[in-house]
Design brief:
Layout lengths: L11 H12 L4 E2 L2 H6 L13 E4 L3 H14 L3 E4 L14 E4 L6 E5 L4 E4 L5 H9 L3 E2 L12 H7 L6 H4 L6 E7 L5 E8 L3 H9 L1 H12 L1 H7 L12 H9 L2 E3 H5 L8 E8 L1 E2 L4 E8 L2 H12 L5 E6 H7 L1 H4 L7 E8 H4 L3 H12 L9 E3 L2 H12 L1 H4 L8 E2 L6 E2 L5 H15 L3 E6 L4 E8 L4 H20 L16 H8 L1 H14 L40 H6 L6 H8 L6 H8 L7 H5 L6 H10 L4 H11 L1 H13 L1 H4 L2 H15 L22 H4 L15 E4 L1 H6 L4 H11 L14 H5 L3 H15 L4 E4 L2 H8 L1 H4 L6 H10 E3 H7 L14 E5 L3 H5 L4 H9 L3 E4 L14 H4 L1 H18 L3 E4 L2 H11 L4 E4 H14 L1
Parallel strand pairs: 2-4, 3-4, 21-22, 22-23, 24-25, 24-26, 26-27
Antiparallel strand pairs: 1-2, 5-6, 6-11, 7-12, 8-9, 8-11, 9-10, 13-15, 13-16, 14-15, 14-19, 17-20, 18-20, 19-20
Helix pairs in contact: 7-8, 8-22, 12-19, 19-20, 21-22, 24-27, 34-46, 40-42, 44-45
The structure holds flavin-adenine dinucleotide and iron/sulfur cluster (2 copies).
Length: 941
Amino acid sequence: MTAPTLILPERSHAIASDLRAALGVDKVKDDYSTLTAYAVDASIYRMTPRAIVLVESEEDIATTVRYAMHRGIPLTPRAAGTNLTGSAIGSGIILDVSRLNRVLELNREESWARVQPGIVLAELNKQLGRHGLMFGPDPSSGDMCKLGGMLANNSSGPHTLRYGAVKDNVEALRVCLQSGEWLVAKVYGLDDPSCADLLNAHKPLRDLQLLLQENAILIRQKRPTVSKNSCGYNLFGLADGLKQGRFDLPKLFVGSEGTLGLFSEATIRLVEKPRATLTALIHFHRLEDVGDAVPKLLELSPSALEVMDANTLNLIGRAKHGIPADAAATLLMELDADSVGLDLRAQAERMTEMCRRYRLASDPVIAFDPEQREQLWKARKALYPTLYRFHPRKKPINFVDDVVVPAERISELIRYLEEFFTGQRVPVAIFGHIGNGNAHIIPLLDVNDEHDFQKMVQGYHEIHQTVLGRFGGSICGEHGDGRVRAEYVKTMFGPELYDLFVRVKQSFDPSGMLNPGIKISDRPFTDHIDYVRLSKSCATCAKCNAVCPVYDVFQSEDMSSRGWFEIVTDKNYSYLNSKRVVEACLNCKSCRTACPAGVDVSQLILDRRAEHPNKMAGLIFRFHAQSARFERFLKLLARYQSIWDRPIIRRLLDRVTRPFIRGLAETARLSPQLVMPRLALRHLRDRYPELIPQTGQSARSPVAYFHGCAANYFDDGVGDAVISVLRKHGVEPDLPMQRCSGTPIETYGHRALAKEGARVNLASMAGYDKVVTGCASCTLMLKDYPTLFAGEPEQMAAQVLAKRVTHISEFVAQSPVKPPMASQQPTKCKVAYHSSCHLRAAGVTKEPRAILAGLPGIEYVEMPDADRCAGGAGTYLVKDFETSQRIVERKRQAVEQSGAEVVATSCPACMIQLRTGLRGAAEVKHVAQLIQEAYEAADRV
Ligand SMILES: Cc1cc2nc3c(=O)[nH]c(=O)nc-3n(C[C@H](O)[C@H](O)[C@H](O)COP(=O)(O)OP(=O)(O)OC[C@H]3O[C@@H](n4cnc5c(N)ncnc54)[C@H](O)[C@@H]3O)c2cc1C
Ligand code: SF4
Ligand code: SF4
């Protein structure tokens, strides 16, 4: 079947307006930015859709399906868009299920849950984890992929070895058929009256039953013999069921890639979370030994057994990950305590003993601690996007990415592939689930180069043919067929079985409008390749979406980090056609911290904003730059704060200032709910005149304290705490002249003004060995000055300063002086840590936690989502108060769950935001304040 393209361009706007009339304006989008963001998924393809529907109910799904089928418009369901095959993009309507993201029911005793398709796997497991449960299948994309996509792709992951693929863990699905009718797809007994009712109600099911009965022998003959397969429709599972008197409908729909129906919910089977787990890295000197070792290691019943070949190890960087230079392949193995019923340490010894017979490049690395284990998995999970760093033009291309061979022949496969790609002179990464014989093969190619393009086409046919012919394998283990393998499904199963697939598709989707071009298509895999994107730096893996607070709230790709990369780097981008989205970013930098490919979306957005500096912000920041006048103004405000900060006056102020503040953004306001910090009558610099060097005087201390604006202007004790802590460590800091570090200024597009202040700071901080900071944003901005001055004369000085910037928590952690603290106190205060995004981006994550955990009088608790943005981000809570409050809600719930009485953090904006969002549920303090309290308590003893 060829994908039809039935939409005429002039009809495109009618689609969105029809759908808006039927569903409501908030659920339908067809503006330039949205269509650009939804034109990609994590595959090599691009297709620009005509309209996006963000469904919020089953009724929304059915209405959209009926409309699309009635009008002959292709309809593509979509969840997180992390598939690697092009199955979540299309030329018509994209139906995004992300807003349907709740756990509807959980049965702890029977270990099942009813779950909506838009929930992210990691979020699902977080919720289930509170009950000691989890969903077994675990794609490496688990931080971002959603249940709907996992179901439709029959996804699996490293732990398939123990828990199976999605198809093995689904009880039932609610499926919207092409007719708009709903079907409960569960296992029906053939003699059950409800099965007869079902068959009477749905002709496609009658056709299916007949087809299975008439072709039982053919289906049996063509069944793949390897342990994993997601190619074609799973008629094999259905045929098995029929033989046992069951109509096993989940087997049909799981893995159908949105081509037969759309899911609104699934009843999934859950497993107990393992009590304890061991993770091991085994570095082999010879590839051949790996093939020999695998069956032996499988005797230990591992829950996961993964391989990375020598090239992969080279590409991700051996030194960075502590991988020996002579390792020919590395195995990553995991054992769960309750899978073997034995002591894990004894198992570790057995494993080490087994490995002794092979030449290892080093002793196995074994970890029991969750944090260490996560480190071992980190490189493996981010492997594919990490490969984007390798070369500016040669990118990892997924076109033979998911083959399966018998597990014991995996070294033979790797040897064949290495020879093949050496012959082509193409670097390639080969890794995957060796326990299942499932190899991910990712060659690095410049598809814009004619030679590389030809190598891709040659490799596609030769490798798939070899996997089928020589190895008797499958071309698809878990990623789905999508656009990339659709061309080869017929070759994999032969024309007769393929014809059955076509009949199934035609029966469930007679108009061919459900995700056309996917799975059943004769179009070459090279159709719709996104040559432009494949020359860019973003892998479109969506890892950044998983941490983007804006995406978390809106659940729409045009309001997400990955979407923004697409939009701001698109050739048709203009500030006018994308202002709405370019201005929605918080500049929290969470995306930058998360991106394995090294892309900084927030920086790209700042670059775009710099092309259109905000006029109103420019006026404010210029006033701010005139320190003396600005400070007089603030002190005046401080004097009368007890009056203007009263609720009634704040309401009035909100109204009066709105027309003025709107200059910052359409949504900007001074909400009366915003908990204002107390402004200082005497600024920090007024309170510590003895620490201020005279004009022209050189540094009097090796340490400068860069207090930034907030600690100077607010009467919140933060600046005093930092100074007090430094003094306890024997340091009398200087408070050299300083201007705003520049973060808020750059956020509003005033890069020149930010640089002006930065130059002052570079000059005044130049004479110090250490520049201590308390504010997260100042820390990051000072460390980022080399980027601000990239290619300019100041870059060298900026690099020197960046190395000297030290957050107060780092200072305390590194200090040889250990001030006395009061010994353990009987009653402990429960303290959680909110890790400010900018401090995380500056690389400071462990020190504040370690310090808090070591303070007497404190019971440190790690709260859920501690590393997620709280939504304050500089002035964002003025720029868009409503959204900022939607963001902080998740944080509020996390604090509540942790039971913390105090939340510690290190960013003034986070402190304001937490005080506003927590509504008194917990006290908010700077880390330095808690350290100061501990030191001062000792003085009182
Ligand atoms: C870095 C990285 C690592 C990966 N690792 C793995 C791995 O280890 N194992 C693995 O199996 N995959 C892996 N993948 C591929 C991908 O993440 C999985 O296939 C994932 O399950 C797709 O989920 P999604 O939410 O992104 O779905 P999408 O990409 O949005 O959609 C996938 C398919 O599901 C369909 N669909 C979505 N929602 C519905 C619905 N409600 N009803 C009907 N059809 C629907 C879509 O039409 C499409 O055909 C990886 C991808 C990346 C980028
Ligand atoms: S910016 Fe980075 S994390 Fe985000 S989609 Fe691109 S590669 Fe992935
Ligand atoms: S900086 Fe924050 S809000 Fe902006 S794209 Fe990155 S994660 Fe999203």
